[in-house]
Design goal:
By secondary structure, this protein is mostly helical. The chain has a domain of 203 residues: Serine Threonine Protein Phosphatase 5, Tetratricopeptide repeat (Alpha Horseshoe), CATH 1.25.40.390. 52% of the residues lie in helices and 4% in strands. The protein is built from 20 helices and four strands. The strands form two sheets. A two-stranded antiparallel ribbon has the order 1-3. It has a two-stranded antiparallel sheet with strand order 2-4. The N terminus is likely disordered.
Length: 451
């Protein structure tokens, strides 16, 4: 994206709603050189530029967004408009020649690596600005690797910006990738401000669009959960939950509102004055809720009424389109507090704290208008938590797809769902293929089994 286009987008954003999170022009560190780290404002604009890139589309939002393609891959959706790419993901036949999320995640990582190197070398920045921006860059790198390792398995671990060095990297075992994720997030926790900061990363704000200390803590809690480090997951989730001045659950009608108190990190839309999910799900109605998803809802669940459309075809409606010129009322939610309660519930259940686990689970259920769960069976409690995640996080960031894999239920669930989607399920399909052109350029890369 050119600088001119960024400026035009900024003007549009101000016209749409007077949002004040990104008033400085974004800067690309890959093309900007050392001069971008000569002033606080230019350095801050580097990370702003990365959030712009994420908000434009790709893995975060739109037709390549993980909320859409992972929902197609899992058992969440019934596909109505069969574009070639959508049908491939829906039938679990992902195309190795059409894997933009692989490319974009590594672009974001290169962006973050370049920022980390430039910030580290700079001697001209205010220390608090430098510290915050280093924390943001490490956070984003960890965020990208979390999704790469969960979507593709072993992936090349690139922690420098040198293109020649990275272009020959082989796949790194996922355990090592996870260790880098944890290291980055632990460092980010120490570097990031606990408050939310404006675009100059010095003044505090009510806008929740730059990651703070608690965003890093929340993502670390998720990572520990996926690694089955239950005590660490509980500790980090508790640390976020305890920030009651910043965070609390809100009614189901307000979960996706701009800067609501449940949100830990959001991305402000930059293409339109609402998240692109509103176009995919509500306006275009590309998919509807599948029978598998609908059957997971209990009869009185408020989320079904609030987050699915009315009528005969029930499509996800967590986000809503807005007329041009209208005030922006929703940001794209990336991390939110309810996940922390369900992370802690699962961790506590695995640690044998049944009462604590049920308390967290039932807090989420109460918000949804459901009766409390009461069981002495740990397997039943864990099953109830996963079901709650299914109905809470549908059409959000691929939660269901990743949960099926980490719970080792993917083969059983997809063996039933696959034929109904017109595909034939095989275990290797839980991993997306690496981009075919990268395998040609890098002989050290090996494709995932089956592709």
């Amino acid at each position: 994206m050119t600088i001119l286009r960024h400026i035009l987008l900024l003007i549009l954003l101000l016209l749409y709603g007077g949002c004040r999170k990104m008033l400085e022009t974004p800067v690309d560190p890959v093309t900007g050189g050392e001069t971008v780290y000569a002033s606080d404002a230019a350095a801050a604009a580097v990370l702003t530029g990365l959030y712009y890139k994420m908000s434009e589309g790709g893995p975060a939002t739109g037709e390549w967004g993980l909320s859409y393609i992972c929902g197609l891959s899992a058992d969440e959706f019934t596909l109505h408009k069969e574009g070639e790419r959508a049908l491939a993901f829906y039938k679990n036949e992902a195309d190795p020649t059409d894997m933009l999320i692989w490319t974009l995640f590594y672009q974001y990582i290169r962006y973050a690596n370049t920022a980390i190197e430039g910030l580290t070398a700079s001697t001209k920045l205010t220390p608090s600005v430098k510290q915050q921006l280093l924390g943001e860059a490490r956070f984003v790198r960890a965020f990208c690797y979390f999704y790469l390792v969960n979507l593709f398995g072993d992936v090349p671990l690139q922690v420098v910006s040198d293109y020649k060095q990275n272009s020959k990297k082989p796949r790194t075992p996922s355990d090592q990738v996870y260790q880098q994720i944890i290291t980055d997030l632990q460092e980010a926790k120490q570097l990031l401000n606990p408050a939310y900061l404006e675009a100059n990363v010095q003044n505090t704000t009510t806008e929740r669009v730059r990651p703070n200390k608690w965003a890093a803590t929340a993502l670390l809690a998720r990572v520990y959960l996926f690694r089955e480090k239950w005590a660490e997951a509980e500790t980090n989730a508790s640390a976020v939950i305890e920030q009651q001045a910043l965070y609390d659950t809100v009614s189901v009608q307000h979960v996706f509102a701009r800067n609501n108190k449940e949100s830990i990190w959001q991305l402000q839309p930059v293409v339109k004055n609402y998240p692109l999910e509103a176009d995919i799900f509500a306006a275009q109605q590309l998919v509807s809720a599948s029978p598998f998803l609908l059957s997971a809802f209990e009869e009185s669940d408020r989320r079904r009424q609030a987050w699915l459309s009315s009528g005969t075809v029930l499509y996800p409606s967590k986000y809503h389109s807005m007329p041009a010129g209208a005030v922006m009322t929703q940001y794209l939610v990336v991390l939110r507090l309810t996940e922390q309660y369900l992370i802690r519930a699962e961790a506590r259940a695995q640690l044998g704290n049944q009462d604590g686990a049920m308390a967290d689970l039932n807090l989420v259920r109460s918000r949804a208008g459901l009766e409390p769960i009461n069981t002495n069976s740990r397997p039943k409690l864990v099953t109830a938590i996963f079901r709650e995640r299914q109905t809470e996080f549908f059409a959000e960031w691929g939660h269901r797809w990743l949960d099926l894999k980490r719970s080792k239920n993917v083969n059983a669930v997809m063996a039933a769902a696959g034929p109904q989607k017109g595909g034939a399920w095989k275990a290797y399909k839980q991993w997306y293929p690496l981009l075919a052109s990268d395998l040609v350029l890098n002989p050290n890369l090996k494709q995932n089994e089956g592709y």
